[in-house]
Amino acid sequence: MSTETSSQCALVLFSGGQDSTVCLAWALQRFAHVETVGFDYGQRHVVELSMRARIRERMAAMKSEWKARLGEDHTVKLDALAAMSETALTRDMAIEIACNGLPTTFVPGRNLVFLTFAGALAYRRGAGHLAAGMCETDYSGYPDCRDATIKAMQTALTLGMDRELSIHTPLMWIDKAATFALAAELGGEEFLDLVIEETHSCYLGDRTKRHDWGYGCGKCPACELRAKGFAKFMTERSKR
Question: Quick one: which of 9, 186, 190, 237 could link to 25 by a disulfide (CB 3.0–4.6 Å)?
Fold first, then answer.
């Protein structure tokens, strides 16, 4: 691709989890060309990365326009994040609230690093947009998921590369129930089924237990958020 920026090209930060998968569908509805990037940073739930190819394949088969718009996938290895962090996402340690008030699953600087590398890749690929699943409404309290952080990163990347780059966070102000609803809106029951069956968000990387909302240990904060969101989504849906 040309290194000239295109307003019709987007790069989605795609982990293989529920939120980033819904973001990928959101981007495929809006941009003419969409590429994806995943990050291998030594996460305990590295199984999420193994789901990415299957998700992309199923999404391409769902809609002809999605297939036409879905471009290359990229994986970036960021071992240094795990090497320099002592967190429950990169070490075999308890998931709890630390003395600083943040959960031990918080990886300092993770989203800042992700967005920096994604911005550099977008520059090389000629994409004028990034899309990511950060959310401030229904999340684990990570400061690098906040809207103010993302806006600051957009400004920094645009200034630092001297090229306009927009960061989209379509899930920023909605909860997990609304994310399930958005999945159904974007791709119908088939896509909602994919989100439940194929995506992975469990911090422990457990795909041995199947719940109504998908696979996971059922006990970690990510699973609890997903379970609560799905229950609310189903309750709201039954009232319509």
Answer: 186
Give the H/E segment covering residue 172. Answer: none
**Residue 31: what are its φ and ψ, rounded to 5°?**
-120, 150
Chain centroid, CA 50 distance in Å = 14
What is the second-level CATH architecture of the domain 6-238?
Answer: 3-Layer(aba) Sandwich (3.40)
CA angle (117 as vertex; 40, 132 as ends), nearest 5: 80
Q: CB under 8 Å to 192, separation ≥6 — which residues?
A: 180, 183, 184
The DSSP 8-state label assigned to residue 76 in this structure reads: E
pLDDT the model gives residue 1: 46
211 and 197 Cβ atoms separated by less than 8 Å: no
Residue length of the chain: 240
The residues pairing with 38 across neighbouring beta strands, listed in sequence order, are 75
Residue indicated by tokens 């990387």: 205
How far is residue 39's CA from residue 113's CA, in Å, rounded to a whole number? 10
pTM of the model: 0.91
Helix (H) or strand (E) holding 141: none
111-152 confidence digits (pLDDT tens): 999 999 999 999 999 999 999 999 988 666 788 889 999 999
Domain layout of the chain by residue ranges: 6-238
Between strands 6-13 and 33-40, the pairing is parallel
Q: Which two tokens stand for residue 143?
A: 């400061």
Rounded to a whole number, what is the distance in angstroms from the first to the last CA of the chain?
Answer: 46
Amino acid at 31: F
Chain centroid to Cα 185, Å, comes to 18
Strand positions, DSSP E, 52-122: 70-77
CA dist 230 and 64 (Å) reads 28
Looking at residue 97, the DSSP 8-state letter turns out to be B
